[in-house]
Amino acid sequence: MKKRLIAVLLAGMMAFSLAACGGSSDSSTDGGKKEDTSGENMQIAMITDSGDITDQSFNQTTYESCKAWSEKNDVEFNYYKPESDSDEARNASVDQAVADGANVVVMPGYMFAGTVVAQSENYPDVKFVALDVGAGDICEKGVGEGYTYNPDDYNVADYYNTDNVYCCTYQEELSGYMAGYAAVKLGYKHLGFLGGMAVPAVTRFGYGYVQGANAAAEELGIADQIEIEYVCGGQFYGDADITAYMDTWYGSKNVEIVFACGGGIWTSAVEAAVKTGGKVIGVDSDQAPTIDAYGEGITVTSAMKGLAATVNTVLTDIKGGKWSDYAGKIDNLGLVSENPEENYVQLPLESTQWGDGFTEDDYRTLVKSMYSGEITVSNDITAMPATTIKVNDYGSIK
Predict the structure, then answer these.
(1) 144 within 8 A of 178, measured Cβ to Cβ
(2) pTM for the whole thing?
């Protein structure tokens, strides 16, 4: 439950501290609606999760987006890398960022749920933007022992200060579906999915991928010819053991393409793919420039989240005094248009290897059908989706 007495005391203590380091708080002299003027003196900090700003994935995309926006808008920006992969270290990075004057803190990834719970009360004048943090993540940290893993059993607002936090998640199952559908339409028959840790976001990507591949196979009448190997590495980085596992897939199992999903775990899929001429599907951002540095044409497409779009929109609105449009919300971002490039989940138009089986026009038609509701994708992650194609689920490597 909220520690309201503590929050009140801390609010008084922090008011002077933040004013001294450039922060500001909402104020009103007429007792009416508060006017948000914090955008006039923004100072932005981004905290990395367990990775760093060179992970070619979630952290790097968020960092580059924050940095580019800050430079364009002449706003001070710094990033902080926690000393360890722990709630305590992430909280300490927030402490340091606020001490350095930050009044907007951007945090990418579900690992920051504990920070939302702990620090939103401590720093009521700081605006927290938590990307990919959902109600379930917050409830798990807020409730602790005895949590039922069903956020609907709780009032998530009881566990953090809703006044200064905006959270969003992404409908990963949709871009995962697009990637699986594209792979089969482009002629790949033996597919693989290599996840990082089996957290909800990774699982939604994977189960969407399976659903998309199955739908394409059924449309083509080749469901009996399509097979998916499915495994998670148990971590968000590649290593020799996972590369060896991928060597087996691409080698003796003759897997043609692997959707590598989860931080830096893509390195193991790519290292194995280059040995056999295999292909890879990237995740979160357009990873073609990075993956193809290992070998030209390795990346067929990437199942992307609109991290950059989210950062740009939210920071712009904070600067424009529109924080009230975000405070306390936990948005689930997905399709907002039949035009692919306007959505928060999509495939990259420029780097996707379109072919006769799946052209850019075909992709636009697919997105239009998904946006209209003609095609629906389940976000249920309680069990592997039922399919007519063969799916071999190996659990976790570690």
Answers:
(1) no
(2) 0.82
